[in-house]
């Protein structure tokens, strides 16, 4: 029996700034017929849904509404954005302990109604929450996808394009590993429209400070938060890009996180971002991009950091 290709219902759990921006982006890009916002604050979810729905009269008929977890029963995709934001003075570990518990409760509510759902995890810390959702749901790892370094990769490509004065669509480069401080920019295979990055930079006479680009990429989220208090448009576009790959079943290669299996050796059991082929059923194939020894060692460190972090929060 062939695959059924259609756009139908997407449930967004969490109607804060990120969830609302995602719902709006899904509507504008016509990626679902029915978008449902679920939040413990039902008034907030209803207000956000109404605000977006009113705009559909300028566009096309897409249902945007507030609902409960029962809406997950027939959802094509469930996106988890809920969680608390990090407060001044709060450690990353303290935040993770709170959000892991929230994610587990959300997952249990989803699985009460949904049979073999496809879940996209946005909540931070994204890699740890992806691991928690995978374990709590009991779903195959390919059906719980963390946004991982997809936004970090977008920031990386943007910074490279700005410094080399080239169309960002011609920049092919990845950030992999943790969505966090131990992320790994993969410079060795970076290219501009097929030209090795260093060769292109030499030809156009633009020097690229790789250390500065890597730091700007890693601190991109913190920079935006410092300037405006929160980030939500970038992650909304990142999520929309992942949704597009899934609903179009187009086998796009994107850097996302999921719990890796034993064939990845020391990385097994960690929700780590590597290039993956996405389609209608989630992650279809995990891929290993060529790395130099320094990059491989950095990926090993990133995986170990996530392992150690999980050990500290898993029993909360």
Automatic annotation (TrEMBL):
**Alphabetic keyword roster:** Cytoplasm, NAD, Oxidoreductase
Q: Does the keyword section mention Oxidoreductase?
A: yes
Which sites bind NAD(+)?
14-19, 39, 44, 69, 83-84, 99, 122-124, 147
What is this enzyme's class at the first EC digit? oxidoreductase
What GO biological process, any one, is recorded here?
lactate metabolic process
Write down the InterPro entries for this protein, in alphabetical order: L-lactate/malate_DH, L-lactate_DH, L-lactate_DH_AS, Lactate/malate_DH_C, Lactate/malate_DH_N, Lactate_DH/Glyco_Ohase_4_C, NAD(P)-bd_dom_sf
Per the record, what are the reactions this protein catalyses? (S)-lactate + NAD(+) = pyruvate + NADH + H(+)
EC code(s) of this entry: 1.1.1.27
Q: In which pathway does it act?
A: Fermentation; pyruvate fermentation to lactate; (S)-lactate from pyruvate: step 1/1
Q: Which domain of life is it from?
A: Bacteria
Q: Where is the active site?
A: 179
Q: Its biological function?
A: Catalyzes the conversion of lactate to pyruvate.
Q: Can you say what this protein is called?
A: L-lactate dehydrogenase
- What is the species listed in this Swiss-Prot or TrEMBL entry? Candidatus Pullilachnospira stercoravium
